Prior knowledge:
heterodimer; A: 338 residues; 6-stranded parallel β-sheet; B: ABC transporter involved in vitamin B12 uptake, BtuC
Amino acid sequence: MIIRKMLFASVAVACVVGPISALADTADKKIALSNNYAGNSWRQAMLTSWDKITKDAVAKGVVAAADPFTTAENQATEQAAQIQNLILQGYDAIVVNAASPTALNGAIKEACDAGIIVVSFDGIVTEPCAWRIAVDFKAMGESQLDYLAKKLPKGGNLLEIRGLAGVSVDDEIHAGIEAGVEKNPQFKIVGSVNGDWAQDVAQRAVAGILPSLPEIAAVVTQGGDGYGAAQAFAAANRPTPTIVMGNREDELVWWKQQKDKNGYETMSVSIAPGVSTLAFWVAQQILDGKEVKKDLVVPFLRIDQDNLETNLAGTQKGGVANVEYSLEDAQKVIASAK
Amino acid sequence: MKLSSGTLRLIIPAVSLALLLAAVFYMQPRAMSYTGLNLLFNLAVPIALATVAQMLIMAVNDLDLSMGTFVSFCACVTATFLQASPAMGVLIFLGAIAAYAAMGMIIHVRELPSIVVTLGMSFFWGGLAVLMLPSPGGEAPGWVRWLMTSKPPFVPMAIVASVVIAAVTHFLIMRSSFGVLIRGVGGNFRSVERAGWSVIRIRAATYALAALFAVLSGIALVGLTTSADANIALRYTLLSIAGVILGGGEFVGGRVSPIGAVIGALTLALAGSFLSFMRISPDWQIGAQGAILIVVLALRLFLNRLERREKIQ
């Protein structure tokens, strides 16, 4: 009994002491965030999360600095120049949300050659010397079909709203949806439009294609387009299908209204903007000398019928449902990749 | 001391570049080294080439709004065809240059506004680029990568390349008889026509030459980034126009300065770094970049006025 208690105590001490001694090693390190775009609610939430978590980390002396930099024009060449500037400014690690998976590779190679740790997330880069924290977007697409297959066992016609053409995220979610349809042949995609992850664009696109479509059982989406699709269906006086949402506040509010009114059921899935904080902790861990696999996977954030209210309560007006990650979460993600 | 108007035209861009450089060195002494200079300026090389291309078009009194998409297209060709089968890549580039020459002819014969034609073409090039590279990727040919990352002794590649570009285009536009014709067409094409020259041929040749520089810009860009993306160079349309103006060129045809254009491109690239070192919030950066442009242009207007006053006296 005493031995067990002592064991517990030593484990507890190790847990408390462990992180502190680990933190001391990165106290003089500087981490920069290179971000390519700040023009939508998701990116704003991402920057706010970064600010909140890193300010705290700097105050506690975990790192010396964690400064965010955003390019003005969302262009790969501009971000490449920004990364080269960050090299000159002497940062020890650069966390990147990249404008292009490949066009920054030259600048990122320069950074690696200068001995800088580069961690990319969300918009990841293909340069082998960088770390990648990717969302399994394909699984995110497939999960929509898995949910629909359970909810609508008879199947039916699907309308697919895609994102911004030519962006890799759009391709991956689309591939996941296609794989899901193949697995569940009772569903058929009868129409596909580009909603550019924006409600107004999605609404216009859906309103344009709707008259030419048969009855729609469900709408599969990529996030930021569900509310617009719902508005288009309402304006055309068509029955509202099951629209998969994307964690945006306006989408969740609409869902809640429908749920209260007529028991409307759906699900919502997207990547949490707080993934920037996960990238921060991963960079800190690498600086601390931890061995970290180059490819990490972050779980996506899914909201269902029963936890809609709690998630909606925690979401800012005009924002996105969010999770912020802690050092322990990062360590878990790192451990699970091994 | 009497200065020619050409020299005067060059002084302001050169002085503003020197001032910006001094400010950057002051804020970030690390930049004052071989690698530092290379990091500051290497992405300015493709911008400088695109600016020279734009300058050629502006020299004949036109404006090219498809510069960004065309350079993106060239970058995609470089990362795919030029890498996999060089002969095919060269052939595509020749075709693109021919298309530019044809565009110059159509603009001339039908007396179309170049802004409209090139805006239309920008969708064409953009579409081709997406077709060729639907998702970002491709790989830079080895020799391009070698060229852009080579480390010549004493002076970084970015500076060597800028000086070479400036020297070659200066010779081409300011010293050769073809250059005189280009500027003549921009200044007063009727008088060139009356002197017995074929204006349509000169215009076509100018457009083709501009396309050649834009192709080089695309190749240089891929050499730096290692791979391409259909939207990689969209900024270059406005950057190249701003570079020409900043370097002493004017929207009225015929008044251009090749050395100034290269300096203008370097200044623009440096202005971005300067603002980033100053820690100006991104919300203000575009505005601050605009403010730098306005200050330089205001200085030039002021000097122009002085010059005119001296002439009158």
